[in-house]
Amino acid sequence: MKTYEKIGNDTRLVNDDNLKYIQFECFDNQYFYRNLGQGKWKVDLQGIIEYTLAKCGVLPGNITQSSICTVCRRDLFFTHRGDGGKTGSLAAFMQLK
């Protein structure tokens, strides 16, 4: 299974409200987020994706992720966060074989 480009771990910044959603909806694993102070957090989306797929039974050897960050490579991608909410829509899908 391959996951494609996404916002990178160094650029995924959330506030306290978003972190509460991640903790409630996903899991409360502090390994995947780091407190920056003043209500801001860095979140490891790649780690969350891999952890979730593994919990669903996908073997680690069957998971690969792109290292391209959509925010860092705005020359290649439109990104809601990188463009300040001035872009179109996004569609995503996953296939299990």
Task: Give a description of the structure.
- By secondary structure, the protein is α+β, with helices and mostly antiparallel strands.
- The chain has a domain at 2-65.
- The protein is built from two helices and five strands.
- The chain has a three-stranded antiparallel sheet with strand order 2-4-3.
- A hairpin with a 2-residue loop joins strand 3 (33-37) and strand 4.
- The radius of gyration is 14 Å and the shape is globular.
Primary descriptors:
97 residues; 5 strands; alpha+beta; disordered N terminus; two-stranded parallel sheet; 3-stranded antiparallel β-sheet
Distance between the termini: 8 Å
Main pleated-sheet profile: 3 strands, antiparallel
Specify the number of helices.
Answer: 2
Structural class: alpha+beta
Overall form: globular
Task: Estimate the mean pLDDT confidence.
Answer: 70
How much β-strand is present in the residues? 15-25%
The helix/strand series, from N terminus to C terminus, equals EEHEEHE
Number of strands: 5
Helix % is 10-25%
Spans of at least 5 consecutive residues whose pLDDT stays below 50 are 1-5
Radius of gyration: 14 Å
Physical arrangement of strands within the biggest beta sheet: 2-4-3
Describe the secondary structure blueprint for this structure.
Elements: E1 2-3, E2 13-15, H1 16-25, E3 33-37, E4 40-43, H2 45-55, E5 64-65
Parallel strand pairs: 1-5
Antiparallel strand pairs: 2-4, 3-4
